[in-house]
Amino acid sequence: MTPPRNSNAARDIANVLHPYTDAKAFQQTGPLVITRGKGVKIYDDQGKEYIEALAGLWCASLGFDNERLVNAATEQMRKLPFYHSFTAKSHEPMIDLAEMLIERAPSKMSKVFFGNSGSEANDSALKMIWYMNNAMGKPNKKKVFARLKAYHGITLAAASLTGLPANHKLFDAPIANGRFIHVGTPHHYHEAKPGESEEDFATRLAEELEAKIIAEGGADECAAFWAEPVMGAGGVLVPPKTYFEKVQAVLKKYDMLFVADEVICGFGRTGSYWGSQTFNIQPDVLVCAKALSSSYLPISAVMVNEQVFQGIAEGSSTVGTWGHGFTYSGHPVAAAVAIETLKIYDETKIVDHVAEVGAHMQAELRKRFSDHPIVGEVRGVGLIGAIELSADKAAKKPFDPAKKAGPRLCKLGEENGVILRAMANDSMGFSPPLVITKAEVTEMLDRVAKSLDALAVELR
Ligand code: PLP
């Protein structure tokens, strides 16, 4: 159906290139235009209400109408709407936020660098590590390991770390051929051998990682390992028991850094303040964004330990400057909103709230969907989860992609008032605002159940 001329939809089709959208098909389908939000709900330009099962893009942790964040931004806008942090300039919001992050870090961190997005933060972390190793006389120690199905963003270095085909195909990624190495995905349901326990699977993955490190030149050439505690865009993949302990033991052996990408998991999502704490990770570098400001304004952060900082300090003293930074690094208004967000997390004991409501969501997901005829696996921890659709539960077989089972479920979800997102293998993710209540989780899953039943009928 052609949208009326001058409608939002028509003007969008005429002018916008959308991220993560089939640009050609979009010319026919058009957008869903959202105009406002309240709590865990959003409303489109026709006034229809939806529960945002993914908080936008794993983002609006405090819901869509937090007045305190609005006030924090307004006050800072009036006081100092912009200043930068190049050439030793500073301002209080950035100083306060850096201090708060260091205090809350899951391992001992030394300094914080600010960016605007998760991608920028991952690119920055990688540049820091390369810079450090050059400065410390280890110019060959540059190879970085990430996992197949990882998502670390889309700027060229971050996209190279990412392990998803759509982020590589036609983009000439990974760049710097040979420096980006992808190892096995820690997803027991699909990747474990028949009868292999979670622990044995974890041991095998750690052994495979070690073999790859040795093949790639060992400690002399291998610099770091990147990981999301729970892999998000790859389908909400929760690691098997003992996985990160075993991986960290390997990294120690080869003098490699652990970079925790906490862009989704940070700030309570998994039921601990950091995903690193849920999975016993002691990161050397930590990347966060999204829930840092409840995503009301763009801001990301990279925390580095003393070793990385010393490398950067050494290098910048030789070059004369640490030649890296964004115009908006530590932007005062974004920093003010992030400070207020962290204060709200503390005051409302958000981690305890997630532990309680998350346990409810996990139990309900399993109770309602584990035995559903078109659901293969239900997984998750805290307030992050997924149901993976399956054409044949026993064989763990996905639906033929031509059937578009995931996108069709999203469409049915929209009709029933819930925004869903389909990922690899028709995995449907859940990552609602952290402030969601148990009653709202039930309401959200009622709408999902209705949509899933309708899809099962359609696919029969
Ligand atoms: N890292 C993780 C784990 C993410 O989930 C994302 C985005 O979803 C990114 C990095 C990239 O963040 P951005 O889209 O802000 O660049």
UniProtKB/TrEMBL annotation:
A single MF term (Gene Ontology): transaminase activity
UniProt-listed InterPro entries: Aminotrans_3, Aminotrans_3_PPA_site, PyrdxlP-dep_Trfase, PyrdxlP-dep_Trfase_major, PyrdxlP-dep_Trfase_small
Cofactor or coenzyme needed: pyridoxal 5'-phosphate
Signal peptide span: none
Keyword annotations: Aminotransferase, Pyridoxal phosphate, Transferase
PANTHER family: ADENOSYLMETHIONINE-8-AMINO-7-OXONONANOATE AMINOTRANSFERASE
Similarity comment: Belongs to the class-III pyridoxal-phosphate-dependent aminotransferase family.
NCBIfam families: PRK06105.1, PRK07480.1
Protein name per UniProt: Aspartate aminotransferase family protein
Species of provenance: Neoroseomonas terrae
